[in-house]
Amino acid sequence: MDFHQSEILEFCAAPGLFAKEVIMDFIENVIKAYINCGKYMQAKLPLKSKTLQALSSIDPVVRGHSQAVIQLKELAIIIKHLVPTESDPSMEILRYNVDPNLANYEEGDDIVKWWAHVISLGKYPALTQVIRGALSIFHGPLVESSFSLMGDVIDKKMDKTVCRNIRAAEKKDKSFREKRIEERKKRQAEYGCRASCGSAERAKTTAQAEERQARLRHVAKQKNAARRKALEALVIARKKKKL
Question: What is the reported pLDDT for 196?
């Protein structure tokens, strides 16, 4: 049974029970515990994660809000590798956010079934790719249970092979990442990327532009020299005619 603070105080006022100060200290400690727990969760949980904020926009409850459009566009950027390059989900996101013909969604409904219905309409092909990618993220209690089930799939005979494959994959991934870092360093050195450069590509573009300008200046200089030489020859020829 739950007691309000006033009921607890009345209960404490009865003779032969705990003193009021003891109960008040207990209540104060409980409140502090809740506050400290909340602060700890705010500090440790990834509440400021842009990815989680973007993923929250697929909830049909927030449809119609301006932030839903912003976060859905951000989500489309995050998982742009799932969207065909020729497709642009931006306009579809705007239409989806104000579409009055979509089915109603109540708090607690199955979001997967709701989106399955929307996808079946075929009105938002590019947005469909974004939503499918978001809904296919492995999460929830099934993640933990799947690891438990792996114990039934992998027996002791397979442990060594699995570990060897994992180590090989890790080694290959590390080698691949190191190779990419080396290639990036080479590009930066080749194009003279300075600390102020946003990227090696920008440095490359800058270097090409400077080279093009230098080439144009050289050509212009040659043309001017040829023009002066021609004028001098013309002046000399006229002087000879006068003589």
Answer: 46
